[in-house]
Amino acid sequence: MSEWTVHGSRTIYTSPWVDLELVDVEPPGHARYEHHLIKLAPVAATVLLDDSERVLLMWRHRFATNTWNWEIPSGIAEQGENLAVAAAREVLEETGYQVYASTLEPLAYTQPIGGMSTAEHHVFLARDAVRVTDPVDTHEADRIEWHDLDQIQQMIDDRRIVAGVAVAGLSQLLARR
């Protein structure tokens, strides 16, 4: 199979967080049509692991899916921002823990909806988190708790961890044990 031909695109909605385009595409051997494309800034996320083999998770509600679940700190990287710096910033804002971008280890990379979006998720591993303040983004989580790494797979299986960026990062951590 060969690449699709892109004949052009037009923006139908734009905001600081998302752009929606209609792209004039032609799959090999098929007629041209307009395909939706959602353009998003990259997401930077962090799995925090302590010396006791525990992972820091945030209990939160997602209105779009009406889902409560445990998640890892994550957020959108600002224009031109280094991804590790963005990940460290999000950890501090959402949890009050400080990690240093220079010590973060790449853990996972995903394109969660590659068929219709430019979304990229970059997940890092932090082993040196220190609680330095209260979270700034108090609307991000109802609770922030440490969970034994041995419980994480069951939490994923029980759908208590469902966010794609969290599942990808935590699954990679478990696979590398």
UniProtKB/TrEMBL annotation:
Q: Which residues form the Nudix hydrolase domain?
A: 39-169
| GO function term, MF aspect, one | hydrolase activity
Per the UniProt entry, the signal peptide is none
In the UniProt record, does the keyword Hydrolase occur? yes
Which prosthetic group or cofactor does it need?
Mg(2+)
Q: Please tell me whether the keyword Mitochondrion is annotated for this protein.
A: no
UniProt keywords (A-Z) are:
Hydrolase
Against CDD domains, the record matches this protein to: NUDIX_ADPRase_Nudt5_UGPPase_Nudt14 (cd03424)
Member of which family?
A: Belongs to the Nudix hydrolase family.
Q: What is this protein called?
A: NUDIX hydrolase
What is the species listed in this Swiss-Prot or TrEMBL entry? Streptomyces hebeiensis
Q: What is the lineage of its organism?
A: Bacteria, Bacillati, Actinomycetota, Actinomycetes, Kitasatosporales
